[in-house]
């Protein structure tokens, strides 16, 4: 038996401890590796499941992104310009005129006549040109006017407005006519308000959606139409941020008055609109040339249609509208547009009157509108992300009725509160009641706009896809331009009558009447949606609620066509 080496006990003990430590370290490493492998495996499985869910969600959009993204960008630039114009026109009118009571006069005596002129021009132009030519003929007058206003009319508005004459007339005429005198006095602002108001009707509602209807199939509309608005709301968010930033970048200082600061701010904002107009023209050209084969086929089709139309006697505007009146679909869409215009006008005049009392300076008013536009963009974008699911879950009819129901309950509750709460208490928890109502009105405004642009507008546009060419062009122009403005004018005439009967020229005492009208008209809007659903809502429900494999789109489009 070999003898043990003569090693001290302390060294043997240290060696044993070292061997035990190495063994424990190797065991721990193995355990940690196994645990890490398990965690990695679970993470991989989770990521795989998420990826499969995302793939399933995006599967219906395969092959559509090349068309969806450019159209989304086009709609976004148009909406960016509309955001700036909408805030600027309200700022000019409400702060310069001294209140929101002038808006009804503007709607009836400026916007409505201009909308009739635009509709007549568009109706004549649509018989002589198509596509690209019609797009630029409709867009050019707006861009030209905004350029003239920014660089010629507004810098010289003090010398162009007949203040002395209007001051003399104001002293002799009833207080209810103050709004009419104000729009005559500030006639350059009046023209700007009319053109800016019609930008949304002509460029956003008519030109974009007419172009989208020409380039989108009926089976794709329920998928892509809600998504077009995502780019629009991102752009509107940017517009709202820009409105707030410009106020901060050009502040009122010891050497710069509030009016001087607003002059600079307005020129910056309108320059952005003019640049945006040039950009949207570039995007439009890009989308038209994206698919050359489709473009060539479209040009050939347009040429054939133009030859056919030139061989026929020209149809007057009255005859065209007469043919459209006999269409049950156009009838329902017109009632919906009228109701939408009346409810929007009644609500916004009352709300903007409160805003004027809280934000009397143009820069402050514009900045607050920027905040409202920012929140509107965020909420609308969230609603648009869920819109395809809502269409599939609820179907076309219930989804279309969502917006008038929101207007009926939310808008009606706000108008009722505005009519009666100020007479009960002047504040709540230390906050002035006027401020509470103004902020609540902003929330109602945001949610009404969100439901309108996320679900109602796409649902409305789906109806046009299956209609004939006359309904798609002149019918759509009549509904979008004239129908909406007639609705706003109807509300404006009512408000003018109430103002004329008022001894103060203010709307505060007329709010109970406006609440009643708002409620009745919102109910008519819901009834018109139900009537349209009765005519062919089941067909649109089939497109928006069933799987793609079960759709027979060709038959559905034929069923949507107008009778001969």
Automatic annotation (TrEMBL):
Q: Transport as a keyword?
A: yes
Q: How does it sit in the membrane?
A: Multi-pass membrane protein
**Protein keywords:** ATP-binding, Chloroplast, Membrane, Nucleotide-binding, Plastid, Transmembrane, Transmembrane helix, Transport
Report the transmembrane regions from the record: 64-85, 105-122, 134-154, 166-184, 191-211, 223-246, 266-286, 365-390, 402-421, 427-447
Q: Where is the signal peptide?
A: none
GO MF annotation: an example:
ATP:ADP antiporter activity
Q: Which GO terms describe its cellular component?
A: chloroplast membrane
Question: Subcellular localization, per the record?
Answer: Membrane; Plastid, Chloroplast membrane
Family to which the UniProt record says this protein belongs? Belongs to the ADP/ATP translocase tlc family.
> What protein name applies here?
ADP,ATP carrier protein
């Amino acid at each position: 038996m070999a003898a043990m080496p003569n090693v001290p006990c302390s060294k043997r003990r240290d060696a044993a401890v070292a061997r035990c430590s190495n063994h424990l370290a190797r065991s721990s490493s193995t355990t940690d590796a196994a645990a890490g492998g398990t965690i990695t495996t679970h993470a991989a499985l989770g990521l795989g499941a998420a990826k499969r869910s995302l793939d399933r969600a995006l599967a219906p959009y395969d092959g559509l992104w090349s068309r969806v993204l450019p159209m989304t960008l086009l709609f976004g630039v148009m909406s960016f310009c509309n955001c700036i114009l909408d805030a600027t026109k309200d700022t000019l009118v409400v702060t310069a005129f001294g209140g929101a009571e002038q808006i009804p006069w503007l709607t009836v005596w400026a916007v409505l006549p201009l909308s009739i002129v635009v509709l007549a021009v568009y109706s004549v132009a649509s018989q002589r040109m198509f596509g690209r030519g019609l797009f630029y003929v409709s867009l050019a007058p707006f861009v030209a006017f905004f350029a003239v206003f920014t660089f010629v009319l507004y810098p010289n508005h003090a010398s162009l407005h007949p203040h002395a004459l209007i001051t003399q007339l104001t002293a002799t005429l009833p207080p209810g006519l103050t709004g009419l005198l104000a729009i005559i006095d500030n006639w350059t602002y009046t023209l700007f308000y009319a053109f800016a108001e019609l930008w949304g009707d002509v460029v956003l509602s008519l030109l974009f959606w007419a172009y989208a209807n020409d380039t989108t199939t009926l089976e794709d509309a329920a998928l892509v139409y809600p998504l077009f608005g995502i780019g629009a709301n991102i752009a509107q968010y940017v517009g709202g941020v820009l409105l707030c930033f410009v106020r901060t970048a050009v502040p009122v200082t010891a050497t710069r008055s509030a009016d001087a600061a607003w002059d600079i701010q307005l020129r910056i904002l309108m320059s952005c609109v003019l640049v945006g107009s040039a950009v949207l023209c570039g995007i439009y050209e890009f989308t038209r040339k994206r698919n050359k084969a489709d473009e060539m086929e479209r040009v050939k089709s347009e040429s054939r249609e133009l030859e056919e139309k030139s061989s026929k006697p020209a149809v007057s505007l009255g005859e065209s509208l007469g043919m459209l009146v006999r269409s049950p679909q156009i009838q329902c869409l017109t009632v919906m547009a009228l109701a939408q215009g009346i409810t929007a006008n009644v609500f916004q005049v009352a709300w903007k009157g409160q805003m004027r009392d809280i934000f009397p300076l143009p820069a402050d008013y514009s900045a607050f509108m920027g905040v409202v536009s920012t929140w509107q963009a965020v909420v609308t974008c969230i609603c648009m992300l869920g819109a395809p699911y809502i269409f599939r879950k609820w179907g076309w009819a219930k989804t279309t009725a969502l917006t008038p129901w929101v207007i009926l309950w939310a808008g009606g509750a706000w108008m009722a509160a505005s009519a009666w709460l100020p007479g009960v208490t002047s504040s709540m928890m230390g906050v002035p009641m006027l401020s509470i109502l103004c902020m609540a009105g902003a929330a109602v405004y945001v949610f009404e706009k969100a439901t309108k642009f996320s679900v109602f507008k796409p649902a409305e546009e789906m109806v046009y896809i299956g209609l004939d060419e006359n309904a798609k062009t002149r019918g759509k122009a009549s509904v979008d331009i004239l129908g909406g403005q007639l609705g706003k004018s109807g509300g404006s005439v009512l408000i003018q009558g109430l103002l004329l009967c008022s001894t103060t020229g203010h709307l505060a005492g007329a709010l109970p009447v406006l609440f009643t009208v708002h409620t009745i008209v919102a109910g008519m809007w819901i009834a018109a949606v139900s009537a349209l659903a009765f005519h062919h809502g089941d067909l649109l429900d089939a497109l928006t609620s069933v799987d793609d494999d079960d759709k027979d789109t060709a038959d559905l489009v034929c069923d949507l066509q107008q009778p001969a």
